[in-house]
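Handoff note, outgoing to incoming analyst
You'll be picking up this chain. Sequence as last confirmed:
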Amino acid sequence: MKRGSYIIDMTTGEPEITRKISDKLKEKNINFLDAPVSGGPKGAHQGNIAVMVGGTESQFVKIKPIMDDISSNIFYAGKIGSGHSIKAGNNLLNLICRMATFEVISLLVKDGVDPKKAVEIIQKSSGRNYATEITLPDNILSGKMVQGFSTGLMKKDAGVATKIADSNNVEIPLGKLSQELLKNTIDEFGENADMSNVALTYEKLTGAKIRP
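Most recent structure output, in case you need it:
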C-alpha cells in the first residue's frame, strides 16, 4: 500500500491486537483505525447504525466524510482500539439486558401476565431496553424467531469483553453469568443458531411460554 494510506477495520476485534496492528502499520506510514458497528440489520438498512471509530482525532476528521456515506451516526470513540472496546462492552451489555429481560418476562408469564402487555408497558417504563424495544416485539412475540445475529457471534463479542476485563483486573459477575446462560443455548442449538433461541432456553428453564 502507498504511504499515507488508510485502513479502516469495521469488524469486531480485540483492542490489544488492534493497537499492535496500528503500531506495525505506523512504521510503514499507514493509518489504521478501528470502526466497528452496532445497531443490527434494521440500523444498517435505515442508514443509522452506530459506527464507533478509534484512532487519532486528525485521522477521524480525515475519514469522517467517507463514513458519513455509511451512516448518520458516526462517533469518535477515542484512541486506537477504543471502538473495539466500546463494541465489546456494548454487546456484553446487550447480552446482560437480554437475559435479565427474558428472566423477568418469564416470571410475569408464570404469574399470569400477557407477555405482549408486559413488554408494551415496560417499554414505556424505567426497565426498557433493546430487548423490550426490538428483540421481543419484532422477533420473539411475533413468532419470527429471526434476529439476524448468531449465538456464536455473541459468544465471541462477550469473550472479547471478558478479555478486556481480565487484562484490567475488573470483575464482571453479571457478564460471566450471562455468558454461562448463553452457553446453555449454544449447547442445545449450536453457535449458528439465531440469538432469538435464548428465549427457548428461558422457556425450558422456567416453564413459561413466551412465544405465541
